């Protein structure tokens, strides 16, 4: 298993030089304590914790997995001790409000922490990660009593959280939810039903688990308009900050999975469990989207993390493993053969991993700035500001989740390929990264669902193409400023062509959809992938612009070698990976008939 090393130099380059986070934090009310020195110290300590405590448990957790016996779940050896260190370090409350015991730092600080933890050990990071979603939901939609009751122990990390959406008969189509909520005389509700695929549904890391559950009231309208949201704790609060009696919620079984085996994925049974309404009746789905957006952004980190960890392992292996001679001549004549890294095809795979990891990280940090403004709008009661930034982030969320997880999975596969036969062997850890990462393209909405959300909902239905126009205008304005720079001109010209094409493609799909209802579903995946490639191209151009400027001026916080590496990787991305966007452009405009004309009965012939 690759020994994780926190990529602090790249993280700081993005934070300090590309996106100017010091200025960004200075503009936020919650950024008062996020000074460069404090941020640097937090990143260093978090990196150390992930390298020394969390990372070494990654392979152990995969081999041992979680154990289920008599309704109780036991996490792998070392997980509970590591989680206790996590709690003692105050990491759970890093970005939580100070009034509930948090440190009150900007939301993006939590994302930086989550990236390092998730890359080092995705299974471990899911336990506190699910809690963050519950915390956000209660903070935004809970009443004062609910906030006081649940947010303090959740912030401390003494209690954990989950989200309970999926049921045996429905996944994405939440209109089919059958879990019932019966009103009680004391204002509570009795929740009855079964939920599946519940991450962190039961475990031994925290003393209590707070479930956020979708259910239907007796007189609720059919479909998604009749779903409400409830808080259902494992142990009922005793009113004094502690726990009372056990609630009617239990784990029925653990799912047997191909990956993230150290993360408890549970079937949860609610048998007349006491629950408490959160948010308005029949508006649970709207409230849950707070949780879903959090989860989807969090899941996209897995794509970046998979690319980073796989790259770290593959790079070291390619330096050490020797096989044949480079086609351009001996590179290490004193050795029996040249290292793999001297072969062009191996370089192709390594640079693909590097471009995905660093380009994806830039996409995440760009979005994290928007999230900071959105959260501040909520905290200040500025609904207009919160909604404006929520719209900007909402456009990027499906791109981040769909594109980055697909690319992260590709990068993980390249890592195993660099190892050759050893990539198939468990002790090297590369096959685990593949297994762990595959779920990222599935949960919190498959790539197809993200694509429909992007094209069908965010672009066409909600904004009639306005979301694309707004984002591409920002990209084009950046590109125009780079045209006078000889080194940046090729990047800028390509970006300008792509922004124009993106708008044309959007318009053509909008017009096609008026005549062909299947056109959006048929084009959605290619539209999402195209959008992802162009967005990553923008991020690589921004990194290249900073590198070019700092090389010319002799300034910046990094070495000449670092900046030259950035430029070389940007050129690789534009010349080797970005051309894929054009195949997606061609595919999204192809006729729907090539998908729908074949009769269902003729999909296969057996005889």
TrEMBL record:
InterPro entries: Acyl-CoA_dh-like_C_dom, Acyl-CoA_Oxase/DH_mid-dom, Acyl-CoA_Oxase/DH_mid-dom_sf, AcylCo_DH-like_C, AcylCo_DH/oxidase_C, AcylCoA_DH/ox_N, AcylCoA_DH/ox_N_sf, AcylCoA_DH/oxidase_NM_dom_sf. This is 3-methylmercaptopropionyl-CoA dehydrogenase. GO terms for molecular function: flavin adenine dinucleotide binding; oxidoreductase activity, acting on the CH-CH group of donors. Belongs to the acyl-CoA dehydrogenase family. It comes from the Bacteria. The lineage of its organism: Bacteria, Pseudomonadati, Pseudomonadota, Gammaproteobacteria, Pseudomonadales. Its cofactor is FAD. It catalyses: 3-(methylsulfanyl)propanoyl-CoA + oxidized [electron-transfer flavoprotein] + H(+) = 3-(methylsulfanyl)acryloyl-CoA + reduced [electron-transfer flavoprotein]. The keyword Flavoprotein applies. Residues 163-272 form the Acyl-CoA oxidase/dehydrogenase middle domain. Residues 282-453 form the Acyl-CoA dehydrogenase/oxidase C-terminal domain. It comes from Marinobacter zhejiangensis. Residues 42-157 form the Acyl-CoA dehydrogenase/oxidase N-terminal domain. Keywords: FAD, Flavoprotein, Oxidoreductase. Residues 476-599 form the Acetyl-CoA dehydrogenase-like C-terminal domain. It is an enzyme of class 1 (oxidoreductase). Involved in the assimilation of dimethylsulphoniopropionate (DMSP), an important compound in the fixation of carbon in marine phytoplankton, by mediating the conversion of 3-(methylthio)propanoyl-CoA (MMPA-CoA) to 3-(methylthio)acryloyl-CoA (MTA-CoA). Its EC number is 1.3.99.41.
